[in-house]
From TrEMBL:
Record-listed Mg(2+) 2 binding positions: 52, 81
Source organism (scientific name): Cohnella silvisoli
The entry's keywords: ATP-binding, Kinase, Magnesium, Metal-binding, Nucleotide-binding, Thiamine biosynthesis, Transferase
Name under which the protein is recorded: Thiamine-monophosphate kinase
PANTHER family on file: THIAMINE-MONOPHOSPHATE KINASE (PTHR30270:SF0)
Reaction catalyzed: thiamine phosphate + ATP = thiamine diphosphate + ADP
Lineage: Bacteria, Bacillati, Bacillota, Bacilli, Bacillales
Binding-site residues, Mg(2+) 1: 52, 129
Enzyme Commission no: 2.7.4.16
Gene name per UniProt: thiL
Annotated residues for binding of ATP: 111, 128-129, 155, 230
Length: 347
């Protein structure tokens, strides 16, 4: 068998292991494959379950995130998966595997971040688990959300003729990370990297999951398909294209490019589109909606003070993602983004 990437591995490990009947009997409306699982609840409501893990050296380092940033972002990234279904986050379970250098005081600061995020989004922290770890800190969070029964917005709802939207700018987090990873020795040297703007660093350390946008999309019945941007716009667009069996055509001229990001990328010899399309950890929502809702959606989001960028269209065809460049050319967008096993993992 050829080496598999992260997504292939999940499939090989889990696909076909439990029958549709078993899952239906257990009350599972939607199992593995979306941002959160959907499970039967009571009186017109369903439960959403999602979990995400952060590992020291992979997701953060001393120089990129403070202790409280790590706690805050671990919960925020999970809340984002509930937002990506149109749901309301309610409860969290937090598991930590703690190596010797993470003393109790550092862990207390990590939990300051967890509770700050929990407070902001009205999430009750109701449990977790604690173990030692040999070298690196691991934080794993499970978030449980609630949603109106039958209304969860899946990755599979995109249809030809719809438009593609984003509920916030992307690429900022990748730009911030780039700046945070610069070596102090570089500073002032010939390869010195200019300090990244505060907004980019903030986007990396304290992302804002789009809960409100997700709720509007669900309550108004506007969201046809939805995904949150953890691995990058390209990767998430591919997930919608594949789950919905459609083609997504993104327009370069419509992609949100802030002056700050463009300037910082250019100063560092990076094409800003690389961050916007492939950066990841943006935790905004990427989705599709029917054209007839476009005006109302724009007005509603503007009135609520939430960004909404219309970035492309859905077309019929084999699953793929295309970029219409500002020069008028059509360029395939590769299924590239953050992947935990980029070189593949041998079975
Ligand atoms: N080890 C695993 N065992 C069972 N299911 C898994 C496992 N890893 C992931 N999944 C499921 O696979 C699907 C895709 O997971 P993935 O982590 O890519 O989505 P995500 O959480 O939205 O993205 P990200 O982790 O990049 O934020 C989800 O339904 C998830 O619950
Ligand atoms: C030190 C350091 N190096 C690289 C990165 C970039 N990064 C790590 S995981 C990920 C995707 C989301 O994770 P997941 O798919 O597990 O949710 C990205 C873009 C970082 N944050 N910190
Ligand atoms: Mg997700
Ligand atoms: Mg995940
Ligand atoms: Mg990922």
């Amino acid at each position: 068998m050829p080496p598999l990437d992260e997504f292939g591995l999940i499939r090989v490990w889990t696909e076909g292991r439990q029958s549709k009947e078993m899952l239906a009997k257990a009350g599972v409306t939607l199992g593995i494959g979306d941002d959160a699982a959907v499970v039967a609840g009571s009186s017109g409501q369903e439960w959403l379950f999602a979990m995400d893990t952060m590992v020291e050296e992979i997701h953060f380092r001393n120089e990129t995130m403070s202790e409280s940033d790590v706690g805050y972002k671990a919960l925020a990234a999970n809340i984002s998966d509930i937002a990506a279904m149109g749901g309301m986050p309610k409860f969290a379970l937090v598991s930590v595997s703690v190596p010797p250098q993470w003393d109790s005081n550092r862990m207390k600061q990590l939990y300051d971040g967890v509770y700050m995020c929990a407070e902001k989004y009205g999430v009750a922290v109701i449990g977790g688990d604690t173990t030692s770890a040999p070298r690196h800190l691991v934080v794993s969070v499970t978030v449980i959300g609630s949603i109106e029964a039958g209304k969860a917005i899946r990755r599979s709802g995109a249809k030809a003729g719809q438009f593609v939207f984003l509920t916030g700018p992307t690429g900022l987090s990748a730009g911030g990370l780039h700046g945070l990873l610069k070596k102090p020795a570089d500073e002032g040297g010939p390869d010195s990297v200019p300090v990244p703007p505060h907004r980019l660093v903030q986007a990396h350390q304290r992302p804002s999951p789009s809960v409100k946008a997700g709720r509007i999309l669900l309550e108004q019945g506007w969201g046809a398909s939805l995904n949150d941007v953890s691995d990058g716009v390209a990767s998430e667009a591919w997930e919608i294209a594949e789950a919905s069996h459609v083609k997504l055509v993104l327009k370069e001229t419509h992609l949100p490019l802030s002056g700050e990001l463009v300037a910082y990328a250019r100063d560092n010899g990076i094409h800003p589109l690389d961050w916007v399309l492939y950066g990841g950890e943006d935790y905004v929502l990427l989705g599709t909606a029917d054209k007839r809702h476009e005006l109302a959606m724009k007005e509603h989001f503007r009135a609520e003070g939430i960004p909404l960028f219309i970035i492309g269209e859905v077309e019929a065809g084999q699953p793929e993602v295309i970029l219409e460049t500002s020069a008028g050319a059509s360029k395939p967008i590769h299924k590239r983004g953050y992947n935990h096993f980029p070189k593949g993992y041998n079975e």
